[in-house]
Design brief:
Layout (H helix, E strand, L loop, with lengths): L1 H4 E6 L2 E6 L10 H16 L5 E5 L11 H5 L5 E2 L3 E2 L11 E5 L2 E3 L1 H7 L3 E5 L3 E3 L13 H8 L2 H10 L3 E2 H6 L5 E3 L4 H13 L3 H14 L4 H7 L1 H8 L2 H12 L9
Parallel strand pairs: 2-3, 3-6, 6-8, 7-9, 8-11
Antiparallel strand pairs: 1-2, 4-5, 9-10
Length: about 260
């Protein structure tokens, strides 16, 4: 069942995860959240995988919560990773959202939980919960104001209006804007560039970015130190220096 709801496809050191519920616009019920959590756990546990791309295919990224399942009392929230089996505790490794079509409600919040976003020119992002008597409770009200000017984030959250990807790209929410149907290819190119780097350095960098985001600067300097020391003690740290001196590509071991 997990393979049906979330398709998993290895591309070298990159894992592509595709939400596969097109009949309901890739909306999440509990089974889909559990399937995504399982894939994420396997991704983090596999030392040969260094980055991931999360996509919904070429028509829609995700419409968020499956409201029919929600009406029966079901919530797509797992015990360990929270909403959608991903949003509250994302993977330790980098994940790029490849967005085609709408990323709405929980779908928008899912994209916000990724490290980078690649979106097609015809995609859109929004938090329409207020239009349905709901509230964006999967991180949208926390993360969106940190990624956009507060006035824009507040407008999106309070009106429920979706915004086109091109506007959000101009405001810095989206890393790459691309032609329709090419988001996956563009995201894969970006993921492969990440995967070519030293794995421990990438992990530590992602951790420091998340750890220090809300800290005052003097505290951030202190909190980053353990990650920095761990990288400097690694074999890959020495390999990077030697490879630079010898003018050759480094051979990363992930240790």
């Amino acid at each position: 069942m997990s393979a049906d709801l979330i398709r998993s496809d290895r591309r070298g050191h990159v894992l592509v995860l595709t939400i596969n519920r097109p009949a309901v616009r890739n909306a999440f019920d509990l089974a889909t959240a559990l399937a995504l959590e399982k894939c994420v756990d396997e991704f983090d546990a596999d030392a040969t995988l260094r980055a991931s791309v999360l996509t919904g295919g070429e028509e829609v990224f995700s419409a968020g919560v499956d409201l029919k399942a929600a009406a029966s009392g079901e919530r797509p929230r797992t015990t360990r990773r929270g909403w959608f089996g991903f949003i509250e505790v994302p993977p330790e490794k980098p994940v790029i959202a490849a967005v085609e079509g709408p990323a709405l409600a929980g779908g928008c919040e899912l994209a916000l939980a990724c490290d980078l976003i690649v979106a097609s020119q015809t995609s859109s992002f929004g938090l329409p919960e207020v239009r349905r008597g709901l509230i964006a409770s999967a991180g949208g009200l926390i993360r969106l104001p940190r990624r956009l000017p507060r006035a824009v984030a507040a407008e999106m959250a309070l009106t429920g209006d979706a915004q086109p990807a091109e506007r959000l790209y101009s405001l810095g929410l989206i890393n790459r804007i691309c032609a329709p149907t090419t988001a996956l290819a563009q995201a894969l190119e970006l993921a492969e560039r990440i995967a070519a780097n030293a794995p421990l350095s990438v992990l530590a960098t992602k951790h420091i970015l998340a750890l220090t985001e809300a800290l005052p600067e003097h505290r951030a300097w202190i909190e980053q130190q353990s990650d920095i020391e761990r990288v400097r003690a690694s074999e890959d740290y020495r390999e990077g220096l030697i490879a630079f001196r010898e003018k050759r590509p480094p051979r990363w071991q992930g240790r």
